[in-house]
């Protein structure tokens, strides 16, 4: 029997649709064809197995005790996840019957691991092949099924994912228990979760918040002068140029070469006004700009956050719906921005589909130059999956939501850009010398927009005026400084992170690493988390009351700040975690050793736990004065409405929780500091049932954990938690 194992039911159905009939559906499987063509399709539901809890390895590890740390399993074990045991049993039975197994997990690290771990758990001698499916349309699935590869080619991908899984267990379990118990000794309640990736992300936000809070504006001064050519045969158009500082004025400049001395600025302006000068460096050119590459998931999330104010998780969920339900885009959890060269042959079908699904793009589709071939098509840059592009499917399965429409339009525009002409920028620069001072003027304009006609811009971007064209003057052309003026300015603090800028920071983490050698190492493989996990990491930090929203800005809560203050500097900064991500990437390429990686990590954990307990935890802060959202337990902020001021959830619009302003001590317990669920760490919410008050997880129904009510607070005994 041929057995296909897909990552999820939607992919299994797509595979079955591409296989010959007749089709017979059973509990957890689909049988296709008959005779020699017969095959069975089954599926996982994400990970069917998960790393065992500490208590599985040693009964004493069920209790949270500092004296037991560190917890290092001698032999790693996986256990069936709750709620999916039936499907695991179905797969076990089918695997034992199979003569050939075709691995059809998603084309990424986790997709490789979750099927591999089931095969290892069951044990099989049957040969295993691998198919990579990035497009759920029937024709694309059929092509993928005709090109199976040996699953052993992907062992390194699986080893990388397994190393990440075990690293997360070691790091999260040990450090979460250590710092939670340390806080308990100081009288604090709740769980202080520490994660290999989530904590450095929190550290980025805390550091940015602190920079803004401690920022002191400093005045600086700018000198601008108006010039005009003095020879009759020269271009008479006036132009404005800005003073260029040189080494003689270094003592009066800041680190960004801004002039700090107003008296000096006034003196320079007086020295050049009304004086003759000459052009020392004219430079004019037309610069071609190639279209940007198609989108990866991170690039899509950043653009959608910038243009549409969509959160990272919302983008991922919407893209997943376009992929699974509507089959309108290719696999969305991709970190690649290139396309396989064979895909170029499908360009006409893809463009035809775009014109039908998005009629507003019919004009650009018609004008697409199909003979153009951008740098996007490059087999050397494509690994397990390629960039996100539209499929050849020409109709959605049902009506698209506004969010789905926006994302499909955005993805389609980036694909159509590949068949558009380069944008031509007209750039100019004039450098003027007056006495010993130099001034520089510049121009920049789009001469031929090319692919930029497909670019989406925010309303505020459209208002940016273009610089007027400069006169065409030659070297040594005489000019006169007609006027010089000094303007006052103040340094500005950086902005708080938004969804777009935080995702960009996680993707390009080398920018936030101080060590130049480490920054150089991380440029090729930089990044905190993966394409598939970054949205979930940010969302987890909100759920655990480490972050909150203030309008479109993301800020750290007092709880988040206390945790970062308590941690060793290396834990709260991205440097080490980014190196780990680079190491995981080297394991994927076959250049790194997963065992050496985990051994080194264990030594690091031992060092963290050797920190004196008194210095590990700062003094606990006062409880939060304001209420927390009755729906998700995020901090609430005051807002102005039609009927006066009220409390609204800081996660709006994703959460619409509200309460009256005067309701600061409600019976549902939301005026208290949130206490995390002992199972998933989401905040607990006080609810009233038939038998009175109890506490339930705010992540219900995904988590059904409940806790008894003890005089208005949750009866959580962490020393007995697992």
Level-2 CATH architecture of the largest domain? Orthogonal Bundle
General form: globular
Instruction: Please describe the biggest sheet, giving its number of strands, its sense, and whether it closes into a barrel.
Output: 7 strands, mixed
Helix content: 25-40%
Q: Quick recap of the structure?
A:
By secondary structure, the chain is an alpha+beta fold. It contains 22 helices and 24 strands.
Q: What does this molecule look like?
A:
The protein has 722 residues and is an alpha+beta fold. It has six domains: 2-48 and 84-147, Rossmann fold; 163-214 and 497-616, Topoisomerase I, domain 2 (Orthogonal Bundle); 219-290 and 423-490, Distorted Sandwich (Topoisomerase I, domain 3); 303-419, Topoisomerase I, domain 4 (Orthogonal Bundle), CATH 1.10.290.10; 624-666, no CATH class; 675-722, no CATH class. 34% of the residues lie in helices and 20% in strands. Strand 23 (706-710) and strand 24 (713-714) form a beta hairpin. It is globular. The model is unreliable at 618-625 and 718-722 (pLDDT under 50).
Summary keywords:
722 residues, alpha+beta, Rossmann fold, Topoisomerase I, domain 2, Topoisomerase I, domain 3, 6 domains, six-stranded antiparallel β-barrel, globular
Helices and strands in order:
Layout: E1 2-6, H1 9-18, E2 23-26, E3 29-32, E4 39-43, E5 49-51, H2 54-57, E6 78-80, H3 85-97, E7 100-104, H4 109-122, E8 128-130, H5 138-145, E9 149-150, H6 155-185, H7 198-213, E10 219-229, E11 239-244, H8 262-272, E12 276-289, H9 297-308, H10 312-324, H11 347-357, H12 362-367, H13 402-416, E13 423-434, E14 437-448, H14 459-462, E15 478-490, H15 499-507, H16 516-522, H17 534-543, E16 547-550, E17 553-556, H18 558-566, H19 569-572, H20 574-588, H21 594-609, H22 613-616, E18 636-641, E19 644-649, E20 658-660, E21 684-689, E22 692-697, E23 706-710, E24 713-714
Parallel strand pairs: 1-4, 1-7, 7-8
Antiparallel strand pairs: 2-3, 3-4, 5-6, 8-9, 10-11, 10-15, 11-14, 12-13, 12-15, 13-14, 16-17, 18-19, 19-20, 21-22, 22-23, 23-24
Helix pairs in contact: 1-5, 4-6, 6-20, 6-21, 9-15, 10-13, 10-17
């Amino acid at each position: 029997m041929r057995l296909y194992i897909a990552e999820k039911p939607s992919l299994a159905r797509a595979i079955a649709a591409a296989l010959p009939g007749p089709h017979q559906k059973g509990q957890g499987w689909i049988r296709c064809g008959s005779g020699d063509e017969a095959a069975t399709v089954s599926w996982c539901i994400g990970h069917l197995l998960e790393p065992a809890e500490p208590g599985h390895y040693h009964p004493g590890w069920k209790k949270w005790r500092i004296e037991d740390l560190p917890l290092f399993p001698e032999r790693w074990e996986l256990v069936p996840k709750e709620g999916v045991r039936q499907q695991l049993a179905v797969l076990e039975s089918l695997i034992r019957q199979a003569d050939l197994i075709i691995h059809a997990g998603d084309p990424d690290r986790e997709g490789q691991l979750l099927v591999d771990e089931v095969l290892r758990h069951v044990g099989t001698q049957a040969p295993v092949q691998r198919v990579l499916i990035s497009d759920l349309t029937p024709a694309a699935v059929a092509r993928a099924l005709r090109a199976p590869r040996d699953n052993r080619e992907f062992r390194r991908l699986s080893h990388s994912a397994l190393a990440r899984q075990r690293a997360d267990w070691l790091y999260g379990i040990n450090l979460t228990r250590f710092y939670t118990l340390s806080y308990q000794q100081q009288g604090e309640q709740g769980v202080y979760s520490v994660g290999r990736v989530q904590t450095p992300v929190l550290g980025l936000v805390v550091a940015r918040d602190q920079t803004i809070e401690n920022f002191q504006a400093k005045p600086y001064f700018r000198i601008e002068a108006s010039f005009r050519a003095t020879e009759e045969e020269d271009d008479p158009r006036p132009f404005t140029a800005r003073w260029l500082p040189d080494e003689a004025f270094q003592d009066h400049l800041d680190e960004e070469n801004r002039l700090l001395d107003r008296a000096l600025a006034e003196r320079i302006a007086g020295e050049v006004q009304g004086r003759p000068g000459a052009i020392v460096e004219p430079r004019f050119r037309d610069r071609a700009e190639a279209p940007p590459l198609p989108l990866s998931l991170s690039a899509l999330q950043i653009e959608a956050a910038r243009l549409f104010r969509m959160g990272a998780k919302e983008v991922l969920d919407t893209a997943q719906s376009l992929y699974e339900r509507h089959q309108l885009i290719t696999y969305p959890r991709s970190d690649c921005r290139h396309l396989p060269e064979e895909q170029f042959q499908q360009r006409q079908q893809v463009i035809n589909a775009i014109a039908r699904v998005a009629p507003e793009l019919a004009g650009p589709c018609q004008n697409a130059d199909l003979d153009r071939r951008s740098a996007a098509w490059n087999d050397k840059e494509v690994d397990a999956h390629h960039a996100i592009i539209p499929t050849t499917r020409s109709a959605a399965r049902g009506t698209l939501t506004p969010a789905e429409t926006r994302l499909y339009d955005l993805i389609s525009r980036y694909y159509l850009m590949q068949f558009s002409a380069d944008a031509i920028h007209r750039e100019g620069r004039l450098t003027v010398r007056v006495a010993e001072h130099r001034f520089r003027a510049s121009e920049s304009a789009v001469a031929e927009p090319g692919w930029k006609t497909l670019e989406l811009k925010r309303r505020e971007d459209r208002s940016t005026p273009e610089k007027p064209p400069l006169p065409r003057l030659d070297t040594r052309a005489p000019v006169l400084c007609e006027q010089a003026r000094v303007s006052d300015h103040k340094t500005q603090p950086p902005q708080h992170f938004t969804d777009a800028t935080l995702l960009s920071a996680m993707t390009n983490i080398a920018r936030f690493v101080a060590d130049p050698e480490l920054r150089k190492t991380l440029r090729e493989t930089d990044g905190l988390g993966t394409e598939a996990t970054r949205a979930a990491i940010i969302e987890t930090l909100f759920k655990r009351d480490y972050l909150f929203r203030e309008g479109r800005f993301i800020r750290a809560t007092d709880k988040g700040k206390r945790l970062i203050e308590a941690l060793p500097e290396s834990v709260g900064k991205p440097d080490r975690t980014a190196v780990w991500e680079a190491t995981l990437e080297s394991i994927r390429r076959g250049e790194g050793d997963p065992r050496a990686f985990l051994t080194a990590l264990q030594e690091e954990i031992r060092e963290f736990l050797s920190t004196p307990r008194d210095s590990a935890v700062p003094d606990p802060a006062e409880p939060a004065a304001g209420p927390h959202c009755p729906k998700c337990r995020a901090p609430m902020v005051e807002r102005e409405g039609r009927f006066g001021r009220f409390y609204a959830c800081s996660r709006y619009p994703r959460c619409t929780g509200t309460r009256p302003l005067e309701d600061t001590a409600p019976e549902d317990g939301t005026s208290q500091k949130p206490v995390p669920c002992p199972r998933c760490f989401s905040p607990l919410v006080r609810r009233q049932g038939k038998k009175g008050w109890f506490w339930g997880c705010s992540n219900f129904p995904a988590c059904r954990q409940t806790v008894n009510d003890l005089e208005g607070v949750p009866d959580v005994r962490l020393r007995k938690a697992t």
